[in-house]
Amino acid sequence: MAKEASPGIQTTTPKPQTSHIPLFFKKLVQQRVLLLMSAPFLIWLFIFKYLPLWGWTIAFQDFKPAKSFSDQKWVGFEHFKMLFQDEKFIQVLRNTLAMSTINLVLGFVTAIVLALLLNELRFVLFKRLVQTVSYLPHFISWVVAANIIATALSPDNGIVNELLMWLGVIKEPILFLGIPEYFWGINGLSEVWKNVGWNTIVYLAAMTMIDPAQYEAAEIDGAGRIQRIWHITLPGIKPVIIVLLIMNIGYLLESGFEPQYLLGNGMNVDYSENLDIFVLKYGIAMGNFSLSVAAGMFKTVISFILLFAANYTAKRMGESRLF
Amino acid sequence: MIKKKRLLLTAMIVAMTAVTACSNNSGTNNNTEAGTNSGGNGNQAATTTEQSKVQEKVTFSVFNAAGAAKDINSNETTIGKLLEEQTGVNFKMEHLVGDINTKIGTMIASNDYPDLLIPDAAIDKVIDAGAFIPLNDLIDKFGPNIKRVYGPYMNQMKAADGNIYFIPFSNVVGEYIPSPSIDQGAFWVQRRVLKEAGYPKIKTLDEYFDMVKNYVEKHKDENLTGFISLTHDWRFFATSNPPMHLAGFPNDGNVTIDMSTFDAKVYADKDSTKKWLQKLNDVNAQGLFDKSSFVDNYDQYLAKLTSGKVVGFFDYGWQVGNATNALKDAGNDDLRYFPLPVTFDANTKDQYLDPPGFTSNRGIGITVSAKDPERIMQFLDNLLTDENQILSNWGIKGETYEVDENGRFYRTEEQIAKIDESFRETFGFKYFEWNWPKYGNGSSLPDGNSVAPGRQAEVFQMSLTEGDKTILEKYGAKTYADLFAAPDDRPWFPAWSFSKEQGSDAQIWETKKDELTKKYFPKLVLAKPEEFESMWTEYLDQFSKLDTAAYEKWTTDEVKKRIELAQTK
Amino acid sequence: MANIMTSNTASTEGKKRRLRGGGRYGSLGDRVFDTCNIIFMLLLMVVTLYPFVNTLAVSLNNATDSIRGGIYLWPREFTLQNYSYVFNEATILGATFISIMRTVIGTIVTVFCSAMVAYTISRPDFVLRKFITIAFILTMYFNGGLIPNFLLIRDLGMINSFWVYIIPGIIGVFNLIIIRSFIEGLPESILESARIDGAGDFTTFAKIVLPLSLPVLATVALFTAVWQWNSWFDVFLYNSSEIKLSTLQYELQKILQNSNASMSAKSAGDAFANADNANANMVTPFSIRATMTIVASVPIILVYPFLQKYFVKGMTVGGVKG
């Protein structure tokens, strides 16, 4: 196949004046191996991800699963109206954005810092141990984790209250989950506790790609630990950080569902109820598929806007970008 | 194609013979003596072998969204095997694991169903989708027992188009036997409290809380909690339902229904609720109420009940079974709870016990995918013979129950000990006790025996500990139910089971009402007593935004419809 | 698993440093840093180990007793009842086998395919590069919904088949992007020299890129394996009536639901008589959930050593590349 490809390479150069389309196909022929390597997956992508998008029409119907497509009742933007006009929509949106932003910032900072600190540990066995232990909570389901969190925060001998009382920070136990304003913080810290170890994995993998020679050079230059972290390790994993950051900014309307649902209650509902819970209550729980799809479409639109904006910003700043 | 037709033909012939055989059986077995021989005595075994020559064995699929159990073939259980011998029908049983709406939704969307479907809460969607076939003709042809058992309810089983699409479970056959233990609502209090107070008759809410208060104050050093309330997630009704019971109504959900006008009234914004919350507010101000009640999840709640530190609570018996079992296990009778039928004032007759109801929105139906509806119908009908009801509830004589000289059924200590969870599975109690056509809860046999062993006085008495007997004796009762007033007849009961269309106004009202009460009840209870009034006004203000009148009207209409159906036999 | 990989990386680095004598490590600032770091790590371990230890303790404690709460680090009334309840289920063994199969096959297929696509979109001159990248990335943010996906799988004939575990998840976009970022980080000189040697794109990918990317492939393999191992929703949707294709997670869900149901049946009126004696072998959702967590997570946590040797290989090649 190399034989066939080689004449192609030669012919491209002398024809600078051809229009874009033939040039494009010519290049494509040249790159047919790359095409062969990716085309089957493009087809896969189309079938499994794009084809089901016909389901978005459900958002404009009073969808009944039993009816055929042509028998559905079309209602236009009715479900979107219901979503946007509900008096709780703004509050729910606020909670969603607040919690996902907190999760994003806290999640990134803690995972990166932990990865950097782990990288500085010198006893290999100890380092392995810490890594393994730190990602254990990831394997515990939210139901179990929420139980542990609720017990820890309980005013009846909950460890957090006991600790704070022992330290003299507070005099009386606090009903943590009963104070609405605390909820975002509790939710953010719970996420960190559960996933920080797991989230370091990708950064630690990125660190393996850093050329050890750089550290040697830095050492010769007399750079200290902090300086090495700042000038070598961090820049080394920056591309990965940026790419992950852009992807996650696209997810800003996904603030999670389980912790809010499991730790939320009537007292903190004004701060704990997010978009997903709202959709669960008025969509899925009522068998209203249409409302859930409408909410999903809304999220997609916002995600695209955020995603392209973030990617554009990264591009302008000269950073690595997603696409 | 031809082969298929021939198969159908043989099946039909087989079916005919089976029917005659079965009805013969039930004919001969209809006296009590024979009722106990479902274990397969010589007579019956002979019929079965005779049948199996002609009757091809078939396997149908059934999906059960209501109860969780192992997925098995019914003929792998003792009961299922006997039923297969009688009918040649085996069921491949699958049970729901995840979300019901998702699973049923995919079935509907692909129009691919098991032969038999128990759709539980999704039943409206299934009927709406036209997934169930009308059973009227099948019942006429193959359902003599179904007609006998469901006779009085046939009208209530019909959909608006006059068709019967599924067979419900909750019809009472024979004389009604109420549950001897309190699985429904009650105000519970630790037995030591009653003991110390000299077993007083507690009738009103004030008396109840005074007693709790006295006890807690006398035992200051024990760090007791006076009262807790369950509020977690959908279980919030344990906190919002008491006003209804305190006013002398059974659990109709969001409404109380007047016994003379049959008007449904929402009580969440009425005086009864205000009185209840004000009492809790008061109790909280006295330091008797556990503030964490509004934050604790179900597990934390059960843990507190089991700790022995909580003096009293309101809840439904079935919801605290884990805790009460654990306390019983621990063996300290003082810390166990005793149910009390508390009302607002002494003149109100309590109505905590469920009246015999007919839950018309749960059942089992034959789907459009069913290969052989006639044979399935015969199987269902065959379940409803007295002897098969005995088989699926009591089991086999000499193995899982005995009969004394008066013809009363009972179980020995060893039998009771033997019937544990895994036995219930292998024997098949677990599969045929629920969700199949059956004599509903509280039914009795012609000879007076209870269909359900749990309601048989002999069995219940054996389950009582010495402590149970002592305290019941102090109150002059034989069963816990004796402490409560007998339920009045309410043909619509329970109103909470009225099916609502998906996304209907009634359904949205309920969701909004839940949101509102969940948010405001904690504020009202935990408010400073002087701020209660203004908080209540704020709550009413929010509540008035809901179209409660429409909800009441909808419920009233449903109630009246049901009364009418119950009257036209 | 990733920790092995990184610790190995670190260990090679560490060795190098130690060989060099590491004069700087003796300085006061360094020692303070190390001490603080170690103390911090110890605290972190306490906080992150606790949930697991607590869950283990609950799973080993008598279920009835656990209702009382207050189980922290060790069981109060030790019993193996919860485990025997779970393992009593005849289907567990077969389901575990299917879980292993889907994890192994799914991970290999996904990692290979994702890497291949990642390679193509890492080639700066590939004309479809941007198109493919965006086409994939966009799918992270939308979803046709439950019903259309279900109908698609049905129309493809993948209901009640093993392949429904593998094919719909052939490529994880997140993984794809991560791998791409790494490949882009590889020194262009290596790829260039391969090309000069006359290697085609596939050869370059298979012979050069794959081995060089082992650390990231191992990371992605870990992510995929955990995801495959933990999934049960696809079993629920597509294969629930085919017991032979059931997975461990799904069977555990069943057992949990079962324990839930048996509890409410026990407490409900008519089964009350049975409830009393059934106390002896009572299970509760609370205890079963804890037991499930241990049963389901220990195997996947143990996968780690098996990924380890690939990390080591990855590093030797990676070391050469520098």
From TrEMBL, chain A:
InterPro entries: MetI-like, MetI-like_sf. Keywords: Membrane, Transmembrane, Transmembrane helix, Transport. GO terms for cellular component: plasma membrane. It is found in: Cell membrane; Membrane. It is a multi-pass membrane protein. It comes from the Bacteria. One of its GO terms (biological process) is transmembrane transport. Residues 93-310 form the ABC transmembrane type-1 domain. SUPFAM superfamilies: MetI-like (SSF161098). It holds the Pfam family BPD_transp_1. The chain crosses the membrane at residues 33-51, 97-118, 232-253, 289-314. The keyword Transmembrane applies. Belongs to the binding-protein-dependent transport system permease family. This is Putative aldouronate transport system permease protein. It comes from Paenibacillus phyllosphaerae.
UniProtKB/TrEMBL annotation, chain B:
PANTHER family: ARABINOSE-BINDING PROTEIN-RELATED, DIACETYLCHITOBIOSE BINDING PROTEIN DASA. The keyword Signal applies. This is Putative aldouronate transport system substrate-binding protein. InterPro entries: Bact_solute-bd_prot1, SBP. It comes from Paenibacillus phyllosphaerae. Residues 24-52 are annotated as: Disordered. The keyword Signal applies. Residues 24-36, 43-52 have a biased composition (Polar residues). SUPFAM superfamilies: Periplasmic binding protein-like II. It holds the Pfam family SBP_bac_8. Keywords: Signal. Residues 1-21 form the signal peptide.
Automatic annotation (TrEMBL), chain C:
Belongs to the binding-protein-dependent transport system permease family. The chain crosses the membrane at residues 32-53, 92-119, 131-150, 162-183, 204-229, 286-307. It is a multi-pass membrane protein. Pfam families: BPD_transp_1. Keywords: Cell membrane, Membrane, Transmembrane, Transmembrane helix, Transport. One of its GO terms (biological process) is transmembrane transport. This is Putative aldouronate transport system permease protein. InterPro entries: MetI-like, MetI-like_sf. It comes from Paenibacillus phyllosphaerae. The keyword Transport applies.
